[in-house]
Write the structure tokens for this entry.
Amino acid sequence: MNVKLLLLVPILAIAVETTTAQDKPAAYTQQIDGTKLSFNMQAIPGGEFLMGSKKGKADEQPVHKVKIAPFWIGTHEVTWDIYEPFLYRDYETAHSTVPVPKNVDAVTRPTKPYLDMTFGMGKEGQPALAMTHYNAIQYCKWLYARTGVFYRLPTEAEWEYACRAGTTTEYSFGNDEGKLGEYAWFAANSEGKTQLVGKKKPNPWGLYDMYGNVAEWTYDQYTENAYASSKPENPVVVPDKLYPHAIRGGAYNDEAKDSRSASRLPSDPSWKQLDPQIPKSNWWFPEAPFVGMRLVRPVTPPSKAEIEAYYDKAPIKDN
């Protein structure tokens, strides 16, 4: 494993000693400095939960107890409204109320994609999609430059903990998948496309679209047997190769069984099959219009060196 990657572990496991299982930060709205844009972050209390499912697939077992430090997580999936200014400098300039700061302008961003990366599903209020894992992390870096606040991808354990919201059933609303349509856009009701975020019922902790709409990146490397050797506190499988990474929550084109709290999906190189670039782009999955992201912020921020290690690691080359 790359030595630089080892620095990431404290970032993902931070706040254990400074908070208790009963501590809960307050929800807040993050303004994106220099713009009129903002997004909401929901407070998640620290605690313990049972990760995995006895009824699920082999990669969801064994069910094991995990302790999680408190954090904030996006009330909604990241939408195009707050994602597109990162992609295009001219779009960012148009939405800025003051000149774009030099440190923001210096953040590396993708070149204009050769396809409509909304895939005709719309932008305003719609979840951003088809970005690579690297792209998602670079978006977090842009947010850090804009706000001075450290945002990152959730770990698999954090994501499932937030999704379950204190429940132990297959879904946060129980075991009856017939009720999923009240909480999610999935294959049975989405008409084959993403929908506006926040239009279905939230889970018990006030999070919308944890099931369906777009599947969501986690930071972890996906391994089928990860739970067999999982750590009891703030576990994370630090990625050291390009594929696969773990994706959670199911998407608008997934069946109900793939939109459970414990369901896991690995990323796949076939998602770049249409990409004509050699090597393949670090930014887009042109055949994955079903994967997006949700932001996490740890209660205690990591050091500047740890933040830089998280944001600035070199992308792994794609053949």
User: Anything to note?
Assistant: Strands lie at 28-31, 38-44, 47-51, 64-68, 71-74, 215-221, 245-248, 264-266, 291-292, 296-298.
